[in-house]
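Below is a filled-in request sheet from our internal design queue. Each sheet records the structural input a requester submitted and the sequence that came back. We keep these sheets so that new team members can see what a complete request looks like end to end.

REQUESTER: design group, bay 2
PRIORITY: normal
MODE: inverse folding
CHAIN LENGTH: 211
BACKBONE (tokenized):
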């Protein structure tokens, strides 16, 4: 089984992916972490994430240990991620790893769930289940600000909203693998739903699909 989850920042992908992975016993890959790790490595070298040579070199030498940095969850890493993610050669360098993960899930699992921006459109276009989560920008910014505050990071709602809108626009407008629902994706607006309701709606959709 392969489940593809896509959508903009803070639409609820992470929580839903964790729950579905546990429910169906699937290997889980947060593909955003790959782009965050590349962006963060470029920043750590004092380079600009939009610097193609630096970003491509970081993508080509990425190893699993780079995915464990706690800084990857910061907004600075998220913003750097969306800059390196717009570079076609960076995406190309990360493609095989993601497709291999889906084709041969690790840890003896028989299926995988991947979340990101282009899973249903580019990475796993044949996935039998594709979900696209979205929510109003103000709601997403509020969720992200709360997440950051819970981790002890100072976060001002209006600044989070501005950064997120900027990042979403970059993700939607890029020429390669832009953020958009696959034609056969189930689109779920989570603005007025809590995590339990999102999980229930996803399970309902999946069960109807496999009847
Ligand atoms: O957690 P959040 O939704 O804020 O972001 P993320 O999923 O960690 O992704 C960070 C950035 O990586 C996104 O804004 C995209 O620019 C990029 N990304 C991508 O281009 N393709 C993916 N499959 C996953 C992430």
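RETURNED SEQUENCE:
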């Amino acid at each position: 089984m392969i489940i593809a989850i896509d959508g903009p920042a803070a639409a609820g992908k992470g929580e839903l992916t964790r729950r579905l992975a546990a429910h169906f016993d699937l290997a889980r890959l947060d593909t955003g972490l790959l782009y965050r790790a590349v962006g963060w490595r470029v920043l750590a070298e004092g380079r600009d994430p939009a610097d193609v040579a630096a970003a491509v070199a970081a993508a080509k030498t990425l190893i699993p240990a780079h995915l464990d940095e706690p800084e990857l969850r910061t907004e600075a890493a998220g913003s750097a991620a969306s800059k390196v993610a717009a570079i076609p050669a960076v995406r190309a360098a990360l493609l095989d790893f993601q497709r291999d993960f889906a084709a041969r899930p690790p840890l003896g699992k028989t299926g995988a769930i991947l979340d990101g921006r282009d899973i249903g459109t580019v990475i796993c276009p044949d996935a039998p289940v594709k979900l696209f989560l979205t929510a109003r920008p103000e709601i997403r910014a509020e969720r992200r600000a709360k997440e950051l505050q819970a981790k002890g990071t100072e976060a001002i709602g209006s600044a989070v909203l501005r950064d997120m809108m900027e990042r979403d626009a970059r993700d939607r407008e890029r020429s390669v693998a832009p953020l958009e629902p696959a034609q056969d994706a189930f689109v779920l607006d989570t603005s007025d739903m809590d995590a339990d309701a999102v999980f229930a709606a996803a399970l309902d959709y999946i069960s109807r699909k496999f009847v």
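SHEET NOTES:
- The pocket of cytidine-5'-diphosphate is lined by residues 9-10, 31-32, 35-36, 78, 81-82, 85, 116-118, 167, 171 (CB under 6 Å).
- Residues 129 and 206 are 7 Å apart (CA to CA).
FILED BY: M.R.
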